[in-house]
Amino acid sequence: MTDLFLKIKERLKQADKKRIIFPEFTDERILSAANRLAQENLLVPVFIGSENEVERVLKDKGIVLAEYETVDPDRFQEYDRLINAYIERRRHKADDLETAKEKVKESNYFATLLVHLGYADGMVSGAIHTTSKALRPLLEIVKTKEGVQKVSGAYLMVRGEEQYVFADCAVNISPSSEDLAEIALQTVETAKLLDMDPKVALLSFSTKGSAHAPETEKVIEAFHLVKKKAPSLLVDGEMQFDAAYIPELAERKAPRSAIKGDANIFIFPNLDAGNISCKIAERLGKFQAVGPLLQGLNRPVNLLSRGCCEDDVYKVGLLTALKANEKHS
Fold first, then answer.
1. pLDDT over 70, % of the chain
2. Taking the alpha carbons of 210, 211, 214, 216 in that order, is the dihedral positive or negative?
3. pTM for the whole structure
């Protein structure tokens, strides 16, 4: 395990244990990761289901959990509070009582409402469900923090002691200049949570005017917006990936850039570029892609890829607990 995650574990051991919901507890990857996290005394896993149902799944998988809690929707005594909260959060859509009752029966909505109302400190979801299905309740119920317009999804990319953050790789299909600037600034906050010294490259197929197109102008405008909001931040754009990553090419392509081939945050111009790059780095470059880590939400909730392994779940659980501790500090 890299120093990054060892340090995160030490930080968690010095803080109050957080209750993190894992709604997809029937998946063996989830159970195994939750067991590791509980055994190491890093957080308390919370499963959505009856005690008997959880025990049956654990027995079938041959797993003995060190510590966990269950919330049984059929026996939850404040169900009406969840329904009322759903209606309140969806009041602009005028969802009626029957719609609210049906939605709250769905595990993703039930779990999201528990986090929204403070019954749990955070949530990890997405190992079974698509990103869009896992994300929808969060956008409808949890919503964004004050001052943030859109949620974005970052991946922590780790290979040995190398660590980078890629964004947006999960949520925004075709971000505007304003969106890219906000994604960059939110990703800086993610990097700081991980004790990284942010160096941001806004990526394009052009480096500092080597090509001209509406797509490059969008990235250039995003760069100016970021610099206006964070003048001291080490950031540049538009940049090709090689100029942002390789010092020799940075010197050749962008000798006056604040980024000297040493960027550790890469902001992609659209979801195509971000998602494809993340998966290429993971599958061909042998990086571990931890996430997507959701940025800009009101509560500490992160997602998983359906292709995740047990260690991915474990590390996303660590980062969710870390975020929950930051929120409570």
1. 98
2. negative
3. 0.92
Q: Measuring CA to CA, which residue among 67, 74, 79, 29 is closest to residue 53?
A: 74
Q: Does the fold of domain 148-296 match that of domain 1-143+297-329? A: yes
- Indicate whether 94 pLDDT > 90: no
Q: Among 267, 273, 246, which Cα is nearest to 257's?
A: 246
Give the residue extent of every domain in the chain.
1-143+297-329, 148-296
Going through 66-190 in order, the beta strands assigned E by DSSP cover 69-71, 122-125, 152-159, 162-167
DSSP 138: I
User: Which residues, 6+ apart, have CB-to-CB distance to 41 below 8 Å?
Assistant: 13, 17
Segment 101-109 mean pLDDT: 89
Two structure tokens written together for 126: 């997405």
Contact in structure between 264 and 164 (CB atoms under 8 Å): yes
What's domain 1-143+297-329's architecture? 3-Layer(aba) Sandwich (3.40)
Distance CA 171, CA 199 (A): 22
CATH hierarchy code of domain 148-296? 3.40.50.10750
Backbone angles phi, psi at 230, to 5 degrees: -140, 75
